[in-house]
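In the design runs reported in the main text, the only information available to the sequence generator was the tokenized backbone. The following block is the verbatim input for one such run; it is reproduced so that readers can re-run the procedure and compare outputs position by position.
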């Protein structure tokens, strides 16, 4: 590669890394803001309100494949057919 191409790519990588850093910081800020708003609306998240591993196991034992689509079909909402 020529020196000019190498410099271009190094500059481009530096720009993209800076943008990545900026986007990560923005994501952290938005996530924290959403948590604050959720706490205001729903109250603080308490550990005893979270599902336990046993709860998840029970949900999976009773899970019926396609039940989500049946729920929407009962509401009269059907997915689009692929074109």
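Verbatim output:
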């Amino acid at each position: 590669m020529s020196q000019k191409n190498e410099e271009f790519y190094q500059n481009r990588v530096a720009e993209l890394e800076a943008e990545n850093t900026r986007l990560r910081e923005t994501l952290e800020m938005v996530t924290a803001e959403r948590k604050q708003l959720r706490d205001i609306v729903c109250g603080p998240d308490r550990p005893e309100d979270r599902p336990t591993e046993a709860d998840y196991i029970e949900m999976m034992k009773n899970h019926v494949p396609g039940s989500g689509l049946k729920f929407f079909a009962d509401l009269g909402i059907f997915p689009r057919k692929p074109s």
